[in-house]
Amino acid sequence: MHLKIRLTCRKYEIWAFSFFSLVTGLYVLHSSIALLLLNKEVPITRGMLYPRESETREVHSLDGIWNFVRSDPDNPTQGIRDKWFEKDLSKSQPTIPMPVPASYNDITTDNLRDHVGTVWYDRRFFVPRSWRTDQRVWLRFGSVHYEAYVWVNGKRVVKHEMGHLPFEAEVTDVLMYGSENRITVMCDNALIQTSVPQGKITEVPNDNGMTIVQSYTFDFFNYAGIHRSVHLYTTPKTLIEEVKVTTNLKNQNADGEVSYSVSVKGSVVNEADNDLHIQANLYDKEGLLVANATSDGKLEGELQVAEVKPWWPYLMHPDPGYLYQLEIKLLAANEELLDVYRLKVGLRTLSWDQTQFLINGKSVYFRGFGRHEDSDIRGKGLDNALMVRDFNLLKWIGANAYRTSHYPYSEESMQFADEHGIMIIDECPSVDTENFSQELLGKHKSSLEQLIHRDRNHPSVVMWSIANEPRTGSLTADSYFSLVANFTRSLDKTRPITAAIATPYTKDQAGRHLDIISFNRYNAWYTNTGRLDMVTQNVIDEAVAWNKAYQKPVIMSEYGADTLEGLHIQPAYVWSEEFQMEVFSRHFKAFDELRKKGWFIGEFVWNFADFKTAQSYTRVGGNKKGVFTRARQPKAVAHLLRKRYFALGRDLDQCNIPEDIFIYIAEWKS
Ligand code: GCB
Questions:
Q1: 3-class SS at 526?
Q2: Carries keyword Hydrolase (predicted)?
Q3: 298: left (phi over 0), alpha (psi -120 to 50) or beta
Q4: What is the best residue among 221, 406, 407, 469 to mutate for testing ligand 1's pocket, by most ligand atoms within 8 Å of CB?
Q5: Do residues 420 and 520 both lie within one domain?
Q6: According to the model, what pLDDT value does residue 267 have?
Q7: What is the DSSP string of 485-519?
């Protein structure tokens, strides 16, 4: 959205705030009457293949320490008006150093954490003379939260709204080759009622007059900044712009098929002349060529793989996460090599019905987590050390899945999940969605379009989550989610759709539009606090009711209890490690009952690790429902969960149990 409009919206919201009673009245009306929502088209993403080097492409990282300026919150457009992007930021304002990638919030010692509005980044970089040759140069951001405006050498090259998703621009004509260049980024973290996720900006009195306050209902800190890597990369003039891959297994998983379709930029593909074509080669892990094919003029084709090694989830097979390498070569009519792009491909099938979800024909029971991209100091910034540690912990504990609650996670982590056989329920950034409007619907659909475009080739992605805890009790929610779900299906029919719902099943209007029902519930925590005797039956009853209402497979997508590491109280008492263990154990009992019913397909703990939230009297330094601390060390419950996840793996998927899972206690005499 244009900054001016956002600011107008902001004013509107401030104005609306002071007419609270009127709004409340309208809200009641709005909930009882369904808004007429139209299924308008949304912009469709192009390109944006993950930057990879090849014999035709070079990749150059712009990560490092950038210069940073925080705008005056009362004057967020000053930098635009004063054209800070026309020269080095330091010529307009004093700058401070800022790491990229990272959230900016927890880097300084003053209160940058709670800043609302725009901030600016810039840096200089060199572009080699050799890049001037007959090729294109692209500037790509892994993600900037929430809205980004980017200038190169003072010229605006791209604007993007929505965190956690990549965007790029061709910068061939604005770069100066063989010399220094400047990149400037303005980032706005303001969330309003039509952003995804939603928030509210209000102006409230403080000791110095009035101040702008950002509020939101979702339960994680609104970290902002350049969160993921920034790359410059080169491509030939005629390039592979898109690669779409789907896979299939045949003959009881003995043979496999990879279908690919490619689109090209920079040359009109003339189907009749068949002038451009694709040579696709598939290599196994040892680098042996196992299949190849030459496309027709439509740049599509199939590769047949005999004696295939399917992609299996972790613990469902001795060799999980098996990946082939697909080499896509774009060739001219005279066989001249124009461009090469390589990506990893996992061969697997997904299917689902009213009771189960299957991978390669085998029924799946999800044992996983809701997570966050969150850590000390770097906030939501990409951190490879953290990512690798997290995957080590996931494997140590025997999990086979996680949900990217509540937004798309880094592309690097998706690649890692592919490699390690961790199944992903891939969630778009729609969280606590309410006040459904036409504009919000467009943004929400766009977030799904960008997500599916980015992640459609990952074997680890087994399901799309179209929202977390949307307020699905109104009639408008019915039509809104019908449009969102149908749109998602129109983009990808190969994966089922879910949403993590907290609205009671008696009121929910979204479940009928989903393929799999996921529900979040905090028995003994938000309801019947402390009552461990009120967990098991409630979980069973609610799951049964969801299944009865919709006749679809059911997942418990969140359960848990805040736990302060090191707090021990016997008998169990809220916030203690004992309490968290008891809450989990009562859920395990319910899950085992539910598993016997044949349609209960998974359990996801909330949360993998403790994480930062907005300040609130319900949160001590953040949300403490982690099985691991924010520093990624286990709480006592981690050892309990590990025993369960491996026991399930052994019973359901015949996996081996790690030797250290039961420590020696005594010899039992029977
Ligand atoms: C939920 C939300 C999650 C919260 C969690 C909690 O239902 O989906 O974002 O963090 O509850 O701990 O309150």
A1: coil
A2: yes
A3: alpha
A4: 469
A5: yes
A6: 74
A7: HHHHHHH-SSS-EEEEE-S-TTT-SSGGG-SSEEE
Atom index in ligand 1 nearest the CA of residue 526 equals 13
Which residue among 558, 559, 604 is best mutated to probe the pocket of ligand 1, counting the most ligand atoms within 8 A of its Cβ? 558
Q: In this predicted model, what pLDDT tens digit does every residue of 118-152 receive, in sequence order?
A: 999 999 999 999 999 899 999 999 999 999 999 99
280 and 411 together in one domain: no
Integer-rounded Cα Rg, in Å, for the chain is 26
Domain that residue 530 falls in: 365-653
| Cα dihedral across residues 444, 445, 446, 447: positive or negative | positive
Q: Find, among 531, 552, 529, the residue nearest to 601 by Cα.
A: 552
Token pair 């090191």: residue: 566
Q: Which residues line ligand 1 (CB under 6 A)?
A: 219, 406, 468-469, 502, 520, 558, 606, 623, 625
As separate numbers, helices (DSSP H) first and strands (DSSP E) second, the chain gives: 11, 32
- Same domain? For 232 and 290 the reply is no
Which CA distances in Å does 450 have to 446, 602, 667? 6, 27, 57
Q: Does the annotation count 603 as an active-site position?
A: no
229 and 255 part of one domain: no
Neighbours of 609 (CB within 10 A): 25
Q: What is the pLDDT of residue 670?
A: 65
Task: Tell me whether residue 48 is in a domain.
Answer: no
Which stretches in the chain have pLDDT values below 70? 1-33, 268-274, 670
Catalytic residue among 241, 434, 469, 582: 469
pLDDT tens sequence across 585-614:
999 999 999 999 999 999 999 999 999 999
Whole-number Å distance between alpha carbons of 480 and 510: 9
3-state secondary structure of 469: coil
107 token code pair: 């880097």
Q: What is the pTM of this model?
A: 0.95
- Single-letter amino acid, residue 599: W
Residue with tokens 């705008």: 71
Atom 7 in ligand 1: which residue has the minimum CA distance?
520
Atom nearest to 623 CA in ligand 1: 12
pLDDT score, position 268: 57
Specify the residue for token string 């003995």: 254
Q: How far is the CA of 479 from the centre of ligand 1 (A)?
A: 25
Residues 7, 2: Cα–Cα separation, whole Å: 9
The CATH number linked to 170 is: 2.60.120.260
In angstroms, the CA 350 to CA 118 distance is 43
Q: Return the structure tokens found at 247.
A: 């896979």
| 21 class by beta-carbon count within 10 Å (0-12 exposed, 13-18 middle, 19+ buried) | exposed
Residue of minimum CA distance from atom 9 in ligand 1: 219
3-state SS, 316-378, equals CCCCCCCCEEEEEEEECCCCCEEEEEEEEECCCCEEECCCCEEECCEECCEEEEECCCCECCC
The Å distance, Cα 520 to ligand 1 centre, comes to 8
Atom 10, ligand 1: which residue's CA is nearest?
Answer: 219
Q: Which of 403, 465, 606 to mutate to test the pocket of ligand 1 (most atoms within 8 A of CB)?
A: 606
| 627 Cα to the center of ligand 1, angstroms | 14
The ligand 1 atom at the shortest distance from the C-alpha of residue 520 is 7
